[in-house]
């Protein structure tokens, strides 16, 4: 097969259907950019899970005088020194516990003022209204229920709270957004495939005389099909290259520069450049193979070779 002929036919096909080729390039670029973005979003959520789950605490909040008057869990009164010592001793015996940190009412009040000092409620609170607590770091964050079962309902304990539960709600929201992006991506891929099939169909129809002559002189089916398949593959590859550029630009401006989220949201462990770069070969391969396969199956129906 003469490569020069195939390349010239690709150029002719792209020029003849310039508008549809542009539509294919744009739809492939957007769909694959969403595809890469959804993969990176999954990586980001997993990175955040590993980062935050390693830092979550279980908090055992102890009853104070205010709770004794209003909370049924503290009906027996505020926690006593003996109860606190017993709770601490029991925690130290538990194999799932890594560290235990005690937070007094004064420390809790100080931390509250640091975090919510601008709140109107902060000015009306006093240290004696705050709760003493034990902050427990678990060896395995999944073992929260062991602590909850052991201390919920105990005298002097107002509640047992797992910070992992709060994070789970955040990660569910992020995963929901990720699945929404994947749904849009799937829709865009369907649109891209339809455009590719239609473009190949129009291109084959516009060159039906040339392909008819080629059949008469004994050209093989693959020789006739190759320019159309490569035409679709080139358009897809251009779209895939644009999708890769979108991801690189988004990573650069959203995280490192421009919005500089890495500097503004220091509590979030963002994915690195390696996570982005490893996705690019997959995007380029998809952008090349998807249009080529779509064109191949379309030609079997419309070119009849």
Automatic annotation (TrEMBL):
Pfam families: FtsX (PF02687), FtsX_ECD (PF18075). The chain crosses the membrane at residues 21-41, 179-200, 221-254, 280-299. The lineage of its organism: Bacteria, Bacillati, Actinomycetota, Actinomycetes, Kitasatosporales. It comes from the Bacteria. It comes from Streptomyces coeruleorubidus. The gene is ftsX. Signal peptide: none annotated. Belongs to the ABC-4 integral membrane protein family. FtsX subfamily. Residues 183-301 form the ABC3 transporter permease C-terminal domain. One of its GO terms (cellular component) is plasma membrane. This is Cell division protein FtsX. Part of the ABC transporter FtsEX involved in cellular division. Residues 56-160 form the FtsX extracellular domain.
